[in-house]
Design a protein that fits this description.
heterodimer; A: about 625 residues; alpha+beta; Penicillin-binding protein 2a (Domain 2); Beta-lactamase; 2 domains; 7-stranded mixed beta sheet; 5-stranded antiparallel beta sheet; 22 helices; 23 strands; B: about 375 residues; mainly alpha; two-stranded antiparallel sheet; 14 helices; globular
Chain lengths: ~625, ~375
């Protein structure tokens, strides 16, 4: 090697050959070519595609930091807050800033206790808006916050903690079913026209008032557009929009009465247990019969809406939906469907009077068994000669068997028609989602659902059972509240509702009324209605089906018991009442599943509710 | 020799173009680094760069005034110094528990790979200029390749893939200028293609890795940068965004968001061109390229007018080295060349590169002066004989 390096000059004259100019020229030509390549490519980038790269540079530089608008507050009718907001802490992830996504997300998942699949699902959901942080866990504890804050700079670039308005329930489980809960909008919901203009990650009302009045409660999100550096650190604000809080919604619910009603249901279930009934669920509706304003609506078992705050864990969801939990999420007051039992008799009576099947003076004889047909129908007692008023007061089955049979013989669907006119078999139209319609059986329905030829036929027994609210008929407590309101208010059909008005969250001024349109007057003769009202007023006297429930109650109460038979279960206890009898201000419907007799369990429960409305002087203990 | 005559024979167009590049580069480096909060002063990098330029100018002046032909006598020293420095890197690197490209000299970190570029031009030019053409051609070609192969290989395994490429390219350029037969180029091309196929496709399959995985990533990512915007493709994508968003007139000096907000990586070294493109736009790019064209044109002119083969080869080698580096560096920032870490001559931040490039310009000036003096002599001879 050294030898060729130091080789002696073989040529003394080191003059360059003439070809050097040519060869240098070729290198020059190559240079021109290479520079042309560069300049064309740069021309393409800067001049032809410049706009596109400007947009990409802008995307790089600016990031939108969403600031969620707090939802409106939900108040009861006296402006007692039922749902408020509190400042929560949320863990967010900004995917482009992650250095080693798989590992970092796995560790984060461990720390915050959110399954990695859920984190990935959230990130996938927000894939489109690349320059936004994704919330993966809401409502962490302050301890968790300080734990994470220490570790974020070193181990979790791209993870951040931000303030987030969260729902707060100052009264715990109170009115949980009415209020509903909020949750993150899912993909299906995003596609619905109802949620046009909503974006992934938005909190929406999932049920109850939160769902129904979402458009009022939800504010307009704001945010800041900030300039960030490559590590995602904000450098300066580009622009900002203040979030606009949602409007407040004032409900017709009376918080105190709601509390009393829920307590009363608990008390009623205990009472049923004392009487050896396996009562395991109950519902109540308290409503103003003049306006349809729902003052209280309760369903047992209930749940704590808090479990949804910040995202419900799988375990909590399973606990709520598992077998044996007995459907705590179901609002039995409007979504539970039950045979109404004897509370239905007022409809049979009204239908009979209105259609001329009976008169107020019609008499039937009750011997304890009605055996006109081959199959005997029993009455719960022996009532002798019974007219309309006595039939209602004593809840005499025989009387209504006769009415039902007359309808059958007349080939009339009068009972069904009046049941429907009074609001059964269809939605009451309450401003809450998930209302069930119940069922009013008729020949057409039987022909449709019956499996055998015999099943498809409408038999006399069907009419007879129907007349006392048994058989295939199903109603919701809310529907019965509507029926008894119409009876109490002189034949007007009011629309049950829980929304009173919308108020601006900042100024507090009413911005919209939620009251439904005026009630509709039903074509019922006032004379007939008065006969029913008198029967109901008499049915609260001692010695009737309610025993001495109302002894010592100073406000005149009208009411009707119901004891519905459900095959394979203990009797369902009903009570429907309104008070004061002469000027009804409130209708109370109580239903206790498998609670036994309406008179012995449901009526005393109703009394406890009415005591909360009409304070009674200290009196001898109420009877059972 | 009189200083005045000497100064008269300088190529001032070349000097002006280089001065323009250094000034331009310093401005861009200042823009790219002045807002870095970790620096003791906003002028930190630009000061070092200008100091290196000053040092380089001194070297350049010294070289310009001495007769470049005496370098022939030092070719062995130069050659073994290059190999020695590169080997020293392995020792320094081992001590630093990792590979390094610098030898710390206290006041200055010497980058042997930069020195190797100009050194190898001199060594190869010296060797080739003494080989007669038309005789022992195969031996000449093989010898030149052998001389070049040792430092190139050492730089390659250092690993400094970019510099190895520069060394290989200037070897080819010198052989071309010398007049190597086309057949030899054909054989070389076939051999390199075969070696590449072996290295990238065949050997990895049987479990032998010559390039480190990150090197292969960087080499290939320019073909599909969008596939990996967070990893190797990130640099390239950000660079293209920076340049593209500069449009015709740029966002203005110090106003480049890609640069100032650090989306652009290594914005004062390898990706300094992207800063220029972003902040000064197509117009700034055109000015920079025009300055390079001027340097290359003057360099090639010097290669042609040189009185000696040695001078022609040195000038041609320097031009080829600069051209290759400019093309690969800018090509990398706009996504038409692989990411190799080759600096942009006179513009990228880096002391060794600056000193060596200015030194190379000093050689060009020396060759220019020599050929002009020879011209003077011929003129005088013609006068006297007439």
């Amino acid at each position: 090697m050294v030898s060729f390096l130091s080789s002696k000059p073989r040529r003394k004259n080191d003059r360059q050959p003439p070809s050097i100019a040519l060869r240098a020229g070729i290198i020059g030509g190559m240079a021109v070519l290479l520079f042309a390549v560069l300049i064309f490519r740069i021309w393409f980038l800067q001049i032809l595609s410049g706009d596109q790269y400007v947009a990409m540079a802008e995307d790089n530089r600016t990031r939108f930091i969403l600031e969620e608008a707090p939802r409106g507050i939900i108040y009861d009718r006296n402006k007692v807050p039922l749902v408020e907001n509190r400042a929560g802490l949320a863990v967010t992830v900004f995917p482009p800033a992650l250095k080693n996504p798989e590992q970092e997300l796995a560790e984060l998942s461990q720390i915050i206790g959110v399954p990695i699949e859920e984190i990935n699902r959230q990130l996938e959901l927000h894939k489109e808006d690349t320059y936004r942080s994704v919330v993966i866990k809401k409502d962490i504890t302050p301890e968790m916050k300080s734990f994470l804050i220490e570790r974020i700079p070193l181990y979790f670039p791209g993870v951040d903690i931000k303030k987030f308005p969260l729902r707060d329930y100052p009264n715990g489980t109170e009115a949980a079913h009415v209020l509903g809960h909020v949750g993150q909008i899912d993909e299906q919901e995003l596609a619905e026209p109802r949620y046009e203009g909503y974006k992934a990650g938005d909190e929406i009302g999932k049920n109850g008032v939160e769902f129904q009045f979402d458009k009022y409660l939800k504010g307009i999100d704001g945010g800041r557009e900030v300039e960030v550096d490559a590590e995602g650190r904000p450098k300066s604000d580009v622009s900002s929009i203040k979030p606009q809080p949602g409007n407040n919604v004032v409900l017709t619910i009376d918080s105190n009465l709601q509390k009393a009603t829920e307590e009363a249901l608990g008390w009623g279930i205990d009472l049923a247990h004392q009487k050896k009934y396996p009562a395991n669920a109950a519902a109540a509706v308290v409503m103003n019969p003049q306006t349809g304003e729902v003052l209280a609506m309760a369903s047992v078992p209930t749940y704590d809406p808090k479990v949804w705050v910040g995202g419900m864990s799988d375990a909590a969801y399973q606990q709520l939906t598992q077998e044996g939990a007995n459907d705590p999420l179901l609002n039995r007051a409007m979504s539970g469907q039950y045979p109404p039992g004897s509370t239905f008799k007022v409809i049979t009576a009204l239908a009979g009077l209105q259609d001329g099947i009976i008169s107020q003076l019609s008499d039937f004889t009750c011997t304890g068994v009605w055996d006109v047909l081959s199959q005997p129908f029993k009455c719960w007692g022996t009532h002798g000669d019974v007219d309309l008023k006595k039939a209602i007061v004593m809840s005499c089955d025989t009387y209504f068997y006769n009415v039902g049979y007359r309808f059958y013989k007349a080939n009339s669907l009068g009972m069904q028609n009046w049941a429907r006119q009074l609001g059964l078999g269809r939605e009451t139209g309450i401003d809450l989602p998930g209302e069930e319609v119940g069922r009013i059986p008729d020949p057409e329905w039987k022909a449709r659902v019956g499996e055998t030829e015999v099943d498809k036929m409408w038999m006399p027994g069907n009419s007879i059972n129907f007349s006392i609210g048994q058989g295939d008929i199903l109603t919701t407590p809310l529907q019965m509240a509507s029926v008894y309101s119409t009876i109490a208010n002189g034949g007007r059909q009011v629309k049950p509702h829980v929304g009173l008005r919308v108020e601006d969250q900042v100024t507090g001024k009413a911005s919209a009324s939620l009251q439904p349109e005026d009630a509709m007057q039903l074509p019922i003769s006032s004379d007939n209605l008065r006969a029913i009202q008198e029967g109901l007023a008499g049915a609260t006297a001692p010695g009737t089906t309610v025993g001495d429930t109302w002894v010592g109650f100073n406000t005149p109460v009208s009411g009707k018991t119901g004891t519905a038979q459900v095959s394979g279960k203990a009797d369902y206890a009903w009570y429907a009442a309104y008070a004061p009898s002469n000027n009804p201000q409130v209708v109370v419907i109580i239903l206790i599943e498998q609670g036994g007799g309406g008179g012995s369990v449901a009526a005393p429960t109703a009394r406890r509710v009415l005591e909360a409305i009409f304070p009674q002087p200290p009196a001898p203990a109420t009877g059972g | 020799m009189e200083i005045r005559t000497h100064l008269r024979h300088f190529d001032y167009a070349l000097l002006a173009a280089v001065a323009g590049l250094v000034a331009f580069g310093s401005l861009i480096i200042y823009s790219a680094t002045h807002s870095d909060p970790n620096l003791p002063s906003p002028y930190y990098y630009v000061k070092i760069q200008l100091l290196a330029a000053l040092l380089g100018t001194i070297f350049m002046a010294v070289l310009a005034f001495i007769d470049f032909r005496i370098l022939r006598n030092f070719r062995q020293h130069i050659y073994f110094a290059i190999i020695g420095m590169i080997l020293l890197l392995f020792i320094v690197g081992a001590e630093a528990k990792g590979s390094t490209r610098w030898i710390p000299l206290g006041f200055f970190n010497l980058q042997p790979s930069e020195v190797a570029k100009i050194g190898m031009i001199v060594v190869l030019a010296a060797f080739l200029s003494e080989r007669p053409r038309g005789e022992l051609e195969t031996q000449t070609t093989l010898s030149a390749l052998g001389i070049a192969a040792i430092p190139t290989f050492l730089v390659f395994i250092q690993p400094d893939f970019g510099t190895a490429l520069v060394l290989a390219s200037l070897t080819v350029a010198l052989l071309f200028l010398y007049g190597t037969r086309w057949l030899h180029f054909g054989v070389m091309f076939a051999a390199v293609s075969g070696a590449l196929v072996m290295m990238l496709k065949v050997l990895p399959v049987i479990g032998i890795q010559i390039l480190k995985p990150y090197q292969i990533d960087r080499l290939l990512v320019f073909l599909h940068p969008e596939h990996d915007p967070g990893g190797s493709g990130y640099h390239l994508l950000q660079s293209k965004i920076a340049i593209g968003s500069g449009m015709m007139t740029g966002k203005g000096l110090y106003q480049g968001t890609q640069t100032q907000l650090n989306f652009l990586p290594e914005h004062h070294t390898d990706f300094v061109f992207s800063v220029l493109g972003e902040e000064l736009g197509f117009i700034g790019v055109a000015v920079l390229l025009a300055l390079y064209v001027l340097v290359i044109w003057r360099g090639l002119r010097i290669a042609i007018i040189s009185e000696s083969m040695f001078g022609s080869l040195i000038a041609g080698g320097v031009v080829s080295m600069l051209l290759f580096q400019v093309f690969v560096n800018i090509g990398m920032t706009i996504g038409i060349m692989p990411i190799t870490g080759i600096p942009l001559p006179f513009v990228s931040y880096g002391g060794s590169s600056m000193v060596v490039n200015l030194l190379a310009i000093g050689l060009l000036e020396s060759i220019h002066v020599r050929s002009r003096l020879a011209g003077d002599r011929r003129y005088r001879r013609a006068q006297t004989t007439a």
